[in-house]
Design goal:
ABC transporter transmembrane region fold, alpha/beta, elongated, Rossmann fold, 2 domains
């Protein structure tokens, strides 16, 4: 299961990190080089010690010493090159997973998005991007080098000591690895409840931050802090319980490493005392044992972390299995009839509507009315392809969009929702957002005057390209609403759909902007309760009458 998920995440990462495979191949080459050099350094020490005891030529000893120093120097250079490349790979892997996560979430069907807790999703995305990189480097920089070193060390020991001693060394090391795998399986179950409660804590924290105004004006600060403390206490208790159990498993592993260290040092001492190995051999064996002791501890820690990282990746990958919006590039006809519902069944508030037959034509202003929760926004979401019909058909200018929406429709249909979106960056970037047209400064300035937004620049002595980040919080609801409408206008749509476009505007401003839209946009479809909007409408659609009989979904 884990390998399957890791491979899937690898494909996700590779989508935005095009040179990932090549970079990893270079990194593997560097790991092989450092592992080989690290393995032969104790052998050089053995040769130097044995040569001095055997009264070898001083020049030969000099050559050995210089060779040892050069090998050490080369290993350090390669190590730091490896670290630099590893840092690049880690950063690219983490960010590529984040990019893929963002793209995936934005393409998930709206019905699935509605079920996602944003606080939990954010925490899991950040954790999973980091976990994926850490898993990759656990294998490449922890497990793989130790395996290579064991191969090199086994060969050197078999040649210089004996094959049985070398195989015993290798077998014991393999036993430690099996113990580590056992610990990984055991510790994995302790991470799942820990991550789950941490996600809940993050979600609760973001919930309080996002509702800070309501909490403050209702004098509920102490109440909310006390409530949050209860969630924190649950997290602390779970965290301590999980980490205590994991620590016990780690102590169990350290005990086996201790026995490995003690056993082979005692055996080497015995062999030295009876003259079976030289002083150089003793030093070499001791160096190899010490060399593997630290990596064994590191592997224990990595396997411990691997369990948690595996849980993080597996949990997060479930988001990639959600249903995605299916779009095509089919072209519609130049038809007077815009949206057309034919015997359509819509899901409204968890219930199923009666058959809907509705035609909307161009060169009109439609106003959609109805009580809260009766399906006004739902009707719009079907028109925009966010929801799919349960039965029947939906057309746009003769193109059947029942099953698949066409990206071509977005070329002439724009939407302004109830939630005002102002992004970080400049005012120009906010206005010319995803638009296919370019505008001169004078054109934008004139439109800002029409929408009564010129003061956003004048009052703060800003240009269209200056950063507005520090001023975003001071924008009023009406200013944000007008900015969103102007952004849609700059896309030059033929059809503009608006959800409560004048809710934050006074009557005079509402009428002025609606008149402007009527003059410059071919067709308007407006959800509203405002009387001034209804007065301008060519046709009013009452969703309560449109949907009529509502039956529970089966």
């Amino acid at each position: 299961m884990f390998l399957k998920t890791y491979k899937a995440m690898w494909r996700v990462s590779n989508k935005f990190y095009k040179n990932e495979r090549q970079h990893l191949i270079v990194l593997i080459g560097l790991v092989i080089a450092t592992s080989f050099i690290t393995a032969i350094l104790p052998y050089f020490i053995k040769l130097i010690i044995d040569s001095t005891h055997q009264n070898e030529s001083i020049n030969y000893i000099y050559v050995l010493v210089i060779s040892y120093c050069l090998a050490w120097f080369l290993s350090q250079i390669i190590e730091w090159i490896k670290n630099a490349l590893g840092g690049l790979i880690s950063a690219k892997q983490e960010t590529s997973v984040l990019i893929a996560s963002l793209e995936n979430y934005l393409r998930i069907e709206k019905s699935q998005q509605d079920k996602v807790d944003i606080g939990i999703f954010n925490a899991e995305a950040v954790r999973a991007s980091n976990a994926f990189s850490m898993i990759t480097f656990a294998f490449l920089l922890a497990f793989f080098p130790v395996i290579l070193q064991l191969i090199f060390i086994t060969y050197i020991l078999s040649v210089n000591i004996s094959v049985f001693f070398a195989l015993g060394f290798l077998g014991t090391a393999f036993g430690l690895f099996l113990i580590s795998v056992f610990i990984n399986r055991k510790s994995k179950k302790y991470y799942e409840p820990l991550y789950s409660i941490k996600n809940i804590l993050n979600s609760k924290f973001l919930e309080k931050i996002n509702n800070a105004y309501e909490i403050k004006v209702n004098n509920a600060v102490d109440f909310e802090v006390d409530y949050f403390k209860k969630n924190v206490k649950k997290f602390i208790n779970q965290s301590f319980s999980s980490h205590l159990k994991i620590a016990c498993l780690m102590i169990f592993q350290i005990a086996f490493i201790f026995l490995f260290l003690l056993g082979f040092l005692l055996l080497s001492t015995k062999l030295f005392s009876i003259g079976k190995i030289t002083t150089g051999d003793m030093v070499m064996i001791s160096s190899y044992i010490m060399m593997l002791t630290m990596p064994s501890l590191m592997i224990s820690q990595q396997i411990n972390l691997l369990a948690g990282n595996a849980v993080a990746v597996e949990n997060f990958y479930s988001y990639f299995e959600f249903e995605k919006d299916e779009l095509n590039n089919k072209m519609y006809q130049n038809d007077h009839l815009l949206f057309s519902f034919k015997n359509a069944l819509l899901e409204v508030g968890g219930k199923l509507s009666a058959e809907v037959n509705l035609d909307l034509y161009k060169n009109k202003m439609y106003v959609i009315i109805g009580k809260t929760g009766t399906g006004k926004s739902t009707l719009i979401n079907y028109m925009l392809g966010a929801y799919k019909l349960k039965r029947g058909q939906l057309f746009y200018k003769g193109l059947d969009i029942t099953k698949q929406y066409s990206t071509k429709i977005f070329d002439e249909v724009a939407f302004v929702g109830q939630n005002y979106s102002i992004f970080t960056g400049s005012l120009r970037e906010n206005l010319i957002y995803n638009a296919k047209y370019s505008y001169a400064d004078d054109e934008i300035s004139q439109l800002l005057i029409i929408f009564d937004l010129q003061h956003l620049l004048f009052d703060k002595n800003l240009s269209l390209d200056d950063d507005i980040n520090e001023y975003l919080k001071s924008f009023s609801g009406g200013e944000k609403q007008r900015l969103n409408i102007l952004r849609a206008v700059l896309k030059k749509p033929k059809v503009l759909i608006l959800d409560e476009p004048t809710s934050a505007l006074d009557s005079h401003t509402s009428i002025r902007i609606l008149n402007f839209l009527n003059e410059h946009i071919e067709t308007l479809i407006v959800i509203t309760h405002a009387q001034e909007c209804k007065d301008l409408a060519d046709e009013i659609i009452d969703v309560e009458q449109l949907f009529r009989v509502i039956t529970p979904l089966t």
